[in-house]
Design brief:
The protein is α+β, with helices and mostly antiparallel strands. About 35% of the residues lie in helices and about 30% in strands.
């Protein structure tokens, strides 16, 4: 099953994406704002794919492998909506990570807008959340352009800088679509 937007194709992550996942998630540049840091080895990436596959079976969705329409066999990123924990509760999290060569092209915003259509119009999720570091201005702009609203600043003295939590509810989404 594939989804698409203007320039991008999206599909479920599968085990043959292992090399691409490690290439992107193992790159220190893609983890500048992520305290967990890059994947330490390809086995870590393999375990991530197994977890994503299990989550897709459990919840009915998970994030996608992302390709440009002009080169559909090459994965340039991963993102979409996946289930995660935030402040002790389960959330439908909007996330994205692209290879550095794909940065600055508006792909994260394009993906985010398509993921919201999928999450709200197709899955009928009640709420979607996006979390970014306060210092990650590019990611913050992506969430704002996609229509998510800043709801909370979460300070953790053991893990600075603060996280910014953006949300959008199905009701807010429906109002946005009518504009």
């Amino acid at each position: 099953m594939y989804w698409e937007s203007e320039r991008l194709l999206y599909r479920p992550v599968i085990m043959s994406d292992l090399e691409a996942l490690f290439r992107i998630y193992g790159d220190v540049r893609t983890h500048r704002f992520n305290p967990a840091g890059p994947h330490r080895d390809i086995e870590h990436s393999r375990n991530v794919i197994l977890l994503r596959t299990a989550d897709r079976e459990r919840y009915g969705f998970d994030d996608w492998a992302i390709c440009e329409k002009s080169e559909p066999e090459r994965v340039i990123g991963f993102g979409g909506i996946f289930v995660s924990a935030l402040n002790g509760r389960q959330t439908n999290n909007l996330g994205y990570r692209f290879e550095p060569e794909a940065w600055g092209k508006g792909y994260a915003t394009e993906l985010s807008r398509r993921a919201l259509i999928y999450g709200f119009d197709e899955l009928k999720l009640p709420e979607i959340v996006g979390v970014t570091r306060e210092t990650h201005l590019a990611s913050r702009r992506v969430l704002e352009k996609a229509g998510l609203l800043l709801m909370q600043r979460v300070d953790d003295p053991d893990d600075p800088p603060a996280n910014l939590v953006f949300t959008l509810t199905l009701e807010q989404w429906e109002r946005l679509k009518r504009r």
